[in-house]
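pinned: reference chain
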Amino acid sequence: MLRNSSIYQVFVRNYKGEGKFKDLINDIKRISDMGFEYLYLCPIHPIGKVNRKGTLGSPYAISDYYKINDEYGDMEDFDDLVKECHNNNLKIMIDIVINHSSPDCVFTLTNPEFYYRNNEGNFGNRVADWTDVIDFNYDNKALREEMIKMLSFWANKGVDGFRCDVASLVPSDFWLEAKEAISKINKDFVWLGESVEFEFIEAIRKLSFKAFTDYELFEAFDMLYSYDIKSFINDAFINEKNLNILARMINYQNSEFKLNNLKVKYLENHDNERIYTLLKKNKNKVLNYLAFIFLQRGVPFVYAGQEAWCEHKPTLFDKDMLDWSNYDETYVELIKKLNSLRKLDIFKDETYCHVGEHEDYFDVTLCSEKEEYYGIYNVLDLKDKMKTELNDGTYINLIDDKEVIITNTEVDSSCLPLFVRVKWLST
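pinned: its structure tokens
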């Protein structure tokens, strides 16, 4: 069930070994053993050479949508990767980039009518600093048909889901067409959309271009990014302020969207700085934030290297391998535990999720018709006692299976993160 699943992201070029599919295949069991349901790959297709950024180029500037980037291997290697994932109960999601392509994409020769033209009549794009790509024109019916054909090609190869780049810039009615077509291949296919910040939507609309809201995208997508509240996330993560406002914005999401309109909850991804660096190498803060994103409504998302306390965000444009030298089995065991907790009925049946609006910590109440759970997360690494919503008594912290004593509704901060079952609401 998607509501209690989780995602592990890999950028193959910079992952391990030589940055090939074969290196990733050797690691599939480890990823599966951590309890993830989905392996999400950054784009796997050949990269354009015209206006290329860096020496190897951005994987988001695609030159051929039906081929594999030979940096990673060939199509047989990809097929082997899909097979290995499925043999280890891991589903595979690939990045789909169809708002734009590289300027030397094969479509520029075979179907130049697929593309947006600027005021000079040349290929162009709507986002000025994306100098290595040109935009598609979804007013063209043949483009839509070709893109659905291409998506069907990958679904027929056993791919289980798409992560759709800048989904907000592609018409929402196209996503509905595509979803209907792919559902005939795999009725359980999963769609994750990279929705964008509201400031981005405003900027695009100011230029008289179309940009689509989360409400529109959720008609087609199962999951969307939390970029609609990204500025509030940054205030909490980076500036360590306004935690209460971030809590309020999460509560707004929980109340405004349907229960199955899921938001991805992340600490980092390929576009964002490493959380360990952002939190000034405070491991306790990181681990509390990790528990916080896992033990609430939404789908938790981990970027490869978090479990090795990576400090450096790899570039998208060059070979820049992850540093695995600080691989931490304790971190891995926490991920395993958090993923196992997400198999509790509360994460399938929850109908109420509320984040307490506090200035210096987060707590979360989860309720279903049958039970209630409570978590508290010391994301600022406060010392001594912390106030809770729990009655006095002894509880079992489900994160580490240790007893925790609540006195005067307070808990010792050394016990956090804390996640407990409060009560059965009915029998």
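why pinned: The longest strand covers residues 371-377. The chain has a mean pLDDT of 96.
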